[in-house]
């Protein structure tokens, strides 16, 4: 999600009061993030890049309130292309596509220029995936001479925006704040970054793409004619974004002039602003919302969502405005009709048809084991599955073998490196927090543990318990384990002396049933206790409830 | 008064104790008994127990290495040797340079680094390096009592930030003293008066009760508190949530937490370049690094759904990446596929799951990396937004909440909604659930033409409504005292 901030004054100038704004924002599916006396911050969902734009947001709000209605052919090309951009082969492997448009007679005074720049930057950061997928630049049209070339080069020099001295491309990438931030967006592939894309008008460099424009083409609040370029890695996306920008320009009262883009093998005109229509069956609308809606009502709902529309037999025909990049098919339009209708106005209707509830066996099984532990006086703890080899292995004096654990590739938190292979370390950590509380302290936990067996991933269900007090002896562990085996219905088992470095040698045992280990228990080794900051004896056991969980999917 | 209580009060009357160890030595009774007596007496206001946080400090591998010399010291020493100046590019150790600059030992102008006066005295060893002195002290165990220190200063914090030491925290008793109430109680300690004090076998079979009277007890005297063994509050809440779904006629299912990106993202129409698929938001795995999807036909359908919907190439390699699921909607996705071919009479099919989900967060008091979620789907004919509102309204009403609804966006539903409620106490809107009608492209790719309602609900958040909690982290520390004494969930 992206947060945009606008001045309340500017909404008021468009006839939108603070109260009506705060009321409408959630109803169109967005969220008021913060509100002060002068400003409002709004969280925009990623499907609606058009609302990152002040002009687009005002347009949507006015339509939603019914103050304006969409018109037929509202956003169409009125002029022939005046600008030509030649694309060289040098950009083909880095950032092959460009679109552009000129807007003449635009008013950038007051906050307007700031809003436009913020919009292009926010759009590039979010929808443009931090400019890697696409980015935009805004230029003073009158500062551009001659024909444009979209090219790439190992180096070049110009004065970046806001500076007074020339810098080379590589200096910009290494040292300029925008270069540091967006240098990586030139290409994922480091080797390809050797060639850097730029736009020039034959005389000078207009921009190092996607990093910064040149100072000499800077648009100011006095600029009346601007040029905007959109470059990126997807032809479809740059063309769509050009449409989105063009609509914003039209709504700002500017005259839009398209560009002719000359690729080596094709020529296209951007923006296209091609008309698009979607037919929606009336019955689909009612059946999706659960509310009966007739044709006329559907048209008025569509209008309030910005679709110019008409009845078409039992269906309605809606024209998708070119600024809507998210509308794939009728479902998306129906959601917009629902938004116009108001989610709060849809009355809940129960789902028809009887069904039996059924709890899952796996859960019932582990829950009954948990109840057994409560019955013998152990309280339940819950620890995280994520852990690290220090707690899971080193503190337990158990050997760590990287290949045998489920490893995390990257974590923001240093002490998260793997999924636990045992429940016991977590319980000992919990006891460590409570060293000075009343003894005995008895805890258990049941849940999953994970391991890799060669390249096979195995999730098991375990139950472990600990008991800490001055008379915590082997026999307490054994008694509790045997009572659990009884609960689990395991009758034929064998208890054998066992060696596990976490336990005192000679005071550890394993339980074998049907040839498999089902439990290990005993008195924990003093070194293990010290590692967890424990100062009283602790006995413990770890029992395998299910050796390999198989999901029924 | 119990004999241990009397002993403890007696000992404290002579002077406060600084630690449990001290009392153990002076009373000659076990720690368990002392803790029991302390708890009783503090409940009656007879003694005062002060607690504090203590820290066990240990050196990391890097910390042990740095004992012989910090990188900034080595840098200063090498600069001293090389005429107090060096080309910055020749300095390989960036960390050393950073700290040397910070300490004012080195100044950098352009490409050249120069040693300052301070740097010289550090390099020549004429002035000891405070940070290293602190590290040495820690290594020698100085300042620690039984391995624990009670405070950590700025030098400590620097060492932690540099990952040279680690701290482990615990709650500890720092002082025990007697109060006025305690002194009064001590004055009324028991004496032998020829009455039967305790019931015993001897009293019964020796018929002592015929000749001797029983000593009367003060019913208000302290008794040993009894704590039940209890489920963890999160388990209680999960069971409550489960019982609500079960009572609403839902079938419980579960699925793996280790998933392919395919089931967590691609099957749910999340575009392959979506920011949540970045390693900074999602835990991807190094072992296993890939999970095979198996079903080639399904793969083909999901591929064409993505190509058509997003107009971008779709890479199988990205879909196979192994990760920890970010939502339980992955389980719903599996079940939409699994139940795509049921008998017509079995619809509507209602399914729910509850389970852990994972987010790659920087953990602090507000953020945890593991959360619980509950997801549900209903597969049927002509299911509507009105139906979904009904399901979620019923669910939350059983938890005492009245949800409101607004539009929202998730790539896998259209229309999409968010359920939220107004928190009177905090005067703010709190998100409860996200959901909607599964996109028909997804249903089709999974092999069904039915309509499907789907939603996901954060469970942890709900805990704040039912239990007083400062942060989620506290809940997973499992402090025994808290587990024993916590309030019941107010559902």
Q: Can you tag this structure with a few keywords?
A:
heterodimer; A: 553 residues; alpha+beta; Phenylalanyl-tRNA Synthetase, Chain B, domain 1; Phenylalanyl-tRNA Synthetase, Chain B, domain 3; seven-stranded mixed beta sheet; 15 helices; 28 strands; elongated; B: 491 residues; Arc Repressor Mutant, subunit A; BirA Bifunctional Protein, domain 2; 21 helices
Query: Tell me, what is the CATH class of the largest domain in chain A?
Result: Alpha Beta
Secondary-structure content class of chain B: alpha+beta
Global morphology of chain A: elongated
How many domain regions of chain A? 4
N-to-C CA distance of chain A: 32 Å
Going by CATH, what is the homologous superfamily of the largest domain in chain A? Phenylalanyl-trna Synthetase, Chain B, domain 3
Helix proportion of residues of chain B, in percent? 25-40%
The CATH architecture of the largest domain in chain A would be: 3-Layer(bba) Sandwich
CATH classification, class level of the domain at 234-257 and 325-485 in chain B: Alpha Beta
Largest β sheet strand count, sense and barrel closure of chain A:
10 strands, mixed
User: What would you report as the Rg of chain A, rounded to the nearest angstrom?
Assistant: 33 Å
Count of DSSP-assigned helices of chain A:
15
User: Which regions of chain A have little confidence, pLDDT < 50, spanning 5+ residues?
Assistant: none
The pLDDT mean of chain B sits at 89
Here the CATH topology of the domain at 234-257 and 325-485 in chain B equals BirA Bifunctional Protein, domain 2
Report the uncertain regions of chain B. Answer: none
What is the structural class of chain A? alpha+beta
Number of strands of chain B: 16
Q: How would you characterize the largest beta sheet of chain B?
A: 7 strands, mixed
Examine the secondary-structure arrangement and name the CATH architecture of the domain at 234-257 and 325-485 in chain B.
2-Layer Sandwich
């Amino acid at each position: 999600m992206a947060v945009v901030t606008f001045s309340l004054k500017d909404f008021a100038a468009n006839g939108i009061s603070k109260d009506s704004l705060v009321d409408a924002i959630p109803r169109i599916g967005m969220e008021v993030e913060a509100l002060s006396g002068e400003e409002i911050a709004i969280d925009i969902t990623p499907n609606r890049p058009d609302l990152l734009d002040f002009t687009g947001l005002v347009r949507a709000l006015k339509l939603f309130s019914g103050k304006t209605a969409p018109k037929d052919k509202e956003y169409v090309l009125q002029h022939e292309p005046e600008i030509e951009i030649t694309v060289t082969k040098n950009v083909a492997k880095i950032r092959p596509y460009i679109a552009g448009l000129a807007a003449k007679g635009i008013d950038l005074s007051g906050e307007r220029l700031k809003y436009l720049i913020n919009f292009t930057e926010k759009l590039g950061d979010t929808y443009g995936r931090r400019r890697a997928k696409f980015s935009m630049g805004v230029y003073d049209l009158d500062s551009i001479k001659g024909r444009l070339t979209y090219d790439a080069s190992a180096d070049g020099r110009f004065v970046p925006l806001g500076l007074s001295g020339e810098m080379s491309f590589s200096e910009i990438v290494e040292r300029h704040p925008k270069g540091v931030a967006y240098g990586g967006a030139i290409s994922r592939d480091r080797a390809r970054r050797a060639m850097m894309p730029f736009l020039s008008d034959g005389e000078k460099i207009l921009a190092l793409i996607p990093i910064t424009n040149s100072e000499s083409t800077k648009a100011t609040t006095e600029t009346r004619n601007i040029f905007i370029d959109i470059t990126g890695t997807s032809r479809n996306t740059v063309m769509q974004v050009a449409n989105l920008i063009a609509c914003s320009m039209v709504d700002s009262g500017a005259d839009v002039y398209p560009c002719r883009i000359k690729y080596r093998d094709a020529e296209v005109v951007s923006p296209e602003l091609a008309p698009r229509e979607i037919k929606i069956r009336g019955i689909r609308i009612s059946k999706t919302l659960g509310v009966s809606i007739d044709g006329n009502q559907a048209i008025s709902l569509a209008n309030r969502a910005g679709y110019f529309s008409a009845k078409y037999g039992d269906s309605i025909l809606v024209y998708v405005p070119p600024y809507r990049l998210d509308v794939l098919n009728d479902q998306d339009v129906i959601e917009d009709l629902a938004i116009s209708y108001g989610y709060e106005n849809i009355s809940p209707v129960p789902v028809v048809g009887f069904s039996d509830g059924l709890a899952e066996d796996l859960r019932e099984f582990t829950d009954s084991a948990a109840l057994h532990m409560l019955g013998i006086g152990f309280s339940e703890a819950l620890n995280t599955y994520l852990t690290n080899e220090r707690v899971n292995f080193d503190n337990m004096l158990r050997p760590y073998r990287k290949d045998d654990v489920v490893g995390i590739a990257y974590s923001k938190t240093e002490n998260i490196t793997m999924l636990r292979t045992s429940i016991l370390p977590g319980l000992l950590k919990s006891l460590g927090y409570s060293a000075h509380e009343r003894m005995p302290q008895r805890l258990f936990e049941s849940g999953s543990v994970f391991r890799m067996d060669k390249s096979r991933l195995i999730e098991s269900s375990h139950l472990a318990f600990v008991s800490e007090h001055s008379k915590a002896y082997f026999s307490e562990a054994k008694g509790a384990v045997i009572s659990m085996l009884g609960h689990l219905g395991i009758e034929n088992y064998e208890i054998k002396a066992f060696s596990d470095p976490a336990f005192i040698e000679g005071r550890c045992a394993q339980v074998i049933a049907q040839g498999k280990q089902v439990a290990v228990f005993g008195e924990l080794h003093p070194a293990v206790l010290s590692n967890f900051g424990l100062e009283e004896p602790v006995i413990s056991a770890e029992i395998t409830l299910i050796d390999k969980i198989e999901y029924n999917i | 008064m119990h004999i241990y209580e009397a002993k403890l009060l007696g000992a404290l009357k002579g002077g406060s104790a600084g630690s449990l160890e001290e009392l153990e030595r002076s009373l000659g009774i076990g720690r368990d008994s002392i803790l029991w007596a302390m708890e009783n007496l503090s409940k009656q206001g007879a003694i005062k127990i002060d607690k504090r946080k203590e820290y066990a400090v240990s050196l990391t591998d890097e910390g042990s290495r740095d004992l012989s010399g910090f990188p900034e010291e080595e840098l200063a020493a090498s600069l001293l040797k090389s005429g107090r100046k060096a080309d910055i590019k020749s300095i390989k150790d960036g960390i050393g340079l950073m700290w040397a600059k910070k300490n004012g030992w080195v100044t950098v102008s352009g490409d050249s680094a120069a040693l300052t006066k301070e740097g010289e005295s550090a390099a020549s060893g004429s002035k000891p390096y405070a940070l290293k002195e602190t590290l040495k002290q820690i290594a020698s165990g100085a300042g620690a009592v039984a391995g624990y220190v009670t405070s950590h200063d700025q030098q400590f914090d620097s060492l932690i930030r540099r990952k040279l030491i680690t701290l482990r925290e615990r709650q500890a008793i720092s002082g025990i003293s007697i109060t006025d109430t305690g002194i009064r109680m001590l004055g009324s300690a028991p004496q032998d008066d020829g009455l039967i004090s305790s019931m015993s076998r001897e009293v019964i079979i020796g018929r002592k009760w015929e000749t001797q009277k029983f000593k009367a007890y003060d019913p208000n005297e302290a008794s040993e508190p009894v704590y039940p063994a209890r489920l963890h509050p999160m388990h209680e809440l999960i069971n409550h949530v489960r019982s609500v779904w079960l009572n609403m006629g839902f079938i419980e299912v579960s699925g793996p937490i280790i998933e392919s990106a395919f089931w967590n993202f691609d099957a749910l129409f999340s575009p392959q370049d979506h920011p949540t698929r970045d390693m900074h938001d999602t835990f991807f795995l190094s072992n296993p690094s890939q999970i095979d999807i198996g079903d080639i036909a399904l793969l083909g359908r999901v591929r064409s759904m993505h190509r058509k919907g997003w107009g971008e190439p779709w890479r199988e390699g990205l879909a196979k990446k192994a990760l920890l699921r970010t939502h339980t909607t992955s389980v719903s996705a599996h079940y939409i596929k699994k139940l795509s071919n049921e008998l017509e009479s079995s619809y509507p099919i209602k399914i729910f799951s509850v389970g852990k989900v994972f987010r790659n967060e920087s953990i602090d008091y507000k953020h945890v990396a593991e959360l619980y979620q509950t997801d549900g789907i209903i597969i049927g004919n002509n299911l509507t937004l009105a139906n979904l509102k009904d399901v979620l309204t019923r669910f939350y009403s059983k938890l005492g909440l009245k949800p409101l609804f607004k539009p929202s966006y998730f790539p896998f539903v259209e229309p999409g909604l968010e359920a939220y409620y107004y928190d009177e106490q905090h005067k703010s809107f709190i998100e409860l659930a996200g959901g909607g009608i599964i996109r028909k492209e997804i249903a089709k790719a999974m092999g069904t033409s039915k309509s499907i309602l789907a939603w996901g609900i954060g469970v942890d958040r709900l805990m704040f409504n039912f239990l007083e909690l400062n942060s989620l982290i506290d809940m997973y520390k499992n402090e025994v005292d808290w587990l024993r004494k916590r309030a019941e969930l107010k559902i």
